[in-house]
């Protein structure tokens, strides 16, 4: 027989547990109006009046120079300021936060308004975050040491026996798996710096990076490294970088409009010429 | 067995009390679990969290790659653990050598423990994993799993050496005196009398270090080897979804459960022996 006293105690305990567990939900964002208004300098940003960009740490040339995104130097830094300008935020109204990869894509509230860190747009990823319109069409390239076994590969078939490496979480790694399908499992590194180190140590025969990074590595960073060639597009769809925004962010449409405008008026092409080497000089691997 | 009416009454009373406390415990557990579930699932962000951390399809798709990675973890773990036990015991014995003539050996062992207990594992991995191959010497291993295993053995044997040393020093000096007075040499008394007792005493902390090693094996992925955590990271980057990490976590927990049971069994056996001694 359970006494009423016990029942009362259980009920009290339950009430305590429930009231402790039922934390107040965060206030929901104000509902976006019908269609984006994109009022210059007055968007519903994280902090009113300023636009917060996110990017990884460290970031690499030619996308950002000297690991300083706020300098305006480097392709993505320049594009970021062009986007901010188009949205009506001058340079002094732009702030940067450094967020590692996993924090960029977590489901909770984001610490940035938009994030430019060479994020490739894929339908799978688009289920978890918002992507802006693309601001760069990217190709993947194979980098090897001139003295290494993979230096003179002229076709993808010749790379199948090589030990390849790439940075974790990149489409470069995906390109190795999908397009080269090497015999041995590719090595996966935390950063491109580690991948470059392993390449110069001879621990991997070649690494795969996006083409502008490949040009930068071979021209300025690694002695005696060369671009073996570009990889063809996987599945025939061009790979493109887009800015990452929170899922259903009220800013996505405005940012995309600005990027489309930058593309049509030639600004993006000009910035590419300024910061990125042209892609025509690397042979295409078949 | 004949019970007096009074004893029967007492027995029945005790049984009813036990039944009652079981029921109360059950009820409060159900209420508590229910409250937690309600609180979590009624949160405004729950659908989003469910999609990001508990997406069954993505988890299932990532499972083969993560399991293949875990196989590397297990292989490295077995080799590293054997290496750690041997090297750790050797260093502990060196540190407990007596006599002034052995000072350099003792100093060397002490220096080794200080150095490798002090160096963060991640930095040691970078220095050994990327530094050794950079020397371009003949015969230096180039395989990342091998280099990672060597580093783990170096670091963890320093910890385990201290565990063994504590065990050796906890054996009462009278044991050593008795062994020597029976005519056993230093080496024999160490092998037959001191070490068996020392090792038996430090089994629980040894198993603890073993579980810690189990999880630190994943750090060798910074050198490029794809272990379970790295495989989860790759799968997670493909879909911008964290479910693969949850899958990897569950696999690691499953891996740690047998270790925990072994530790319990060892402790139970030790306490039984204590009781019989």
In short:
The complex is a heterodimer of chains A (286) and B (277). Chain A is an alpha/beta fold.
Entry keywords:
heterodimer; A: 286 residues; alpha/beta; D-Maltodextrin-Binding Protein, domain 2; 2 domains; 3-stranded parallel beta sheet; 9 helices; 32% helix; B: 277 residues; mainly alpha; MetI-like fold; 11 helices
How would you sum up this structure, described in words?
The complex is a heterodimer of chains A (286) and B (277). In chain A, 32% of the residues lie in helices and 18% in strands. Chain A is an alpha/beta fold and 286 residues long. Chain A has two domains: 51-137 and 238-277, D-Maltodextrin-Binding Protein, domain 2 (3-Layer(aba) Sandwich), CATH 3.40.190; 140-230, D-Maltodextrin-Binding Protein, domain 2 (3-Layer(aba) Sandwich), CATH 3.40.190. With 277 residues, chain B is mostly helical. Chain B has a single domain, classed as MetI-like (MetI-like fold, Orthogonal Bundle). Helices cover 82% and strands 0% of the residues of chain B. Chain B is built from eleven helices and no strands. In chain B, helix 3 packs across helix 6 (144-170), helix 3 (56-95) crosses helix 11 and helix 5 (121-134) packs across helix 6 (144-170). The radius of gyration of chain B is 26 Å and the shape is flat.
**SSE-based structural type of chain B:** mainly alpha
- Tell me the total number of β-strands of chain A: 10
Largest interface: A-B, 47 and 43 residues
- Looking at how many chains there are and whether they match, the oligomeric state comes to heterodimer
């Amino acid at each position: 027989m359970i006494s009423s006293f016990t029942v009362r105690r259980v009920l009290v305990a339950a009430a305590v547990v429930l009231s402790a567990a039922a934390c107040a939900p965060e206030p929901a964002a104000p509902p976006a109006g019908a269609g984006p208004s994109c009022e210059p300098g007055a968007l519903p940003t994280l902090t009113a009046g300023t636009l917060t960009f996110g990017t990884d740490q460290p970031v690499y040339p030619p996308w950002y120079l000297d690991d300083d995104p706020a300098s305006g130097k480097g392709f993505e830094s320049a594009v970021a300021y062009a986007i901010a300008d188009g949205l009506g935020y001058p340079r002094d109204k732009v702030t940067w936060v450094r967020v590692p990869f996993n924090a960029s894509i977590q489901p909770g509230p984001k610490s940035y308004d938009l994030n430019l860190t060479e994020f490739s747009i894929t339908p799978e990823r688009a289920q978890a975050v918002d992507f802006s319109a693309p601001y760069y069409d990217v190709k993947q390239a194979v980098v090897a040491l001139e003295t290494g076994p993979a230096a003179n590969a002229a076709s993808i078939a010749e790379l199948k026996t090589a030990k390849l490496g790439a940075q974790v979480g990149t489409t470069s790694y995906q390109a190795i798996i999908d397009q080269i399908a090497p015999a041995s499992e590719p090595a996966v590194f935390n950063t491109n710096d580690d991948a470059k180190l392993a390449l110069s140590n001879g621990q991997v025969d070649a690494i795969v990076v996006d083409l502008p990074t490949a040009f930068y590595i071979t021209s300025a960073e690694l002695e005696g490294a060369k671009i073996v060639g570009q990889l063809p597009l996987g599945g025939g769809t061009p790979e493109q970088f887009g800015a990452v925004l929170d899922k259903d962010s009220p800013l996505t449409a405005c940012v995309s409009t600005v990027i489309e405008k930058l593309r049509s008026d030639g600004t993006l092409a000009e910035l590419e010429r300024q910061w990125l080497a042209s892609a025509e000089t690397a042979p295409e691997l078949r | 067995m004949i019970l007096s009416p009074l004893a029967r009454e007492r027995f029945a009373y005790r049984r009813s009390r036990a039944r009652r406390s079981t029921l109360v415990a059950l009820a409060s557990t159900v209420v508590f679990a229910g409250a937690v579930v309600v609180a979590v699932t009624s949160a405004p962000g729950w659908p989003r969290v469910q999609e990001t951390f508990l997406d069954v399809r993505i988890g299932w798709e990532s499972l083969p790659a993560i399991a293949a990675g875990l196989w590397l973890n297990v292989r490295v773990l077995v080799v590293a653990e054997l290496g750690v036990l041997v090297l750790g015991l050797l260093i502990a014995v060196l540190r407990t050598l007596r006599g002034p003539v052995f000072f350099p050996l003792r100093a060397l062992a002490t220096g080794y423990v200080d150095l490798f207990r002090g160096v963060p594992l991640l930095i040691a991995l970078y220095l050994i994993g990327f530094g050794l191959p950079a020397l371009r010497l003949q015969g230096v291993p180039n395989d990342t799993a091998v280099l990672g295993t060597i580093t783990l053995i170096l670091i963890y044997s320093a910890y385990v050496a201290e565990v063994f040393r504590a065990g050796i020093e906890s054996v009462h000096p009278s044991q050593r005196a008795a062994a020597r007075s029976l005519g056993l040499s230093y080496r024999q008394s160490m092998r037959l009398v001191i070490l068996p007792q020392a090792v038996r005493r430090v089994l629980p902390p040894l198993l603890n270090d073993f579980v810690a090693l189990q999880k630190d094996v994943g750090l060798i992925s910074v050198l490029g080897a794809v272990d379970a955590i790295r495989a989860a990271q790759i799968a997670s980057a493909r879909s911008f979804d964290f479910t693969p990490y949850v899958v990897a976590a569950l696999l690691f927990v499953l891996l740690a459960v047998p270790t925990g049971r072994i530790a319990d069994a060892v402790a139970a056996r030790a306490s039984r022996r204590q009781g019989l001694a």
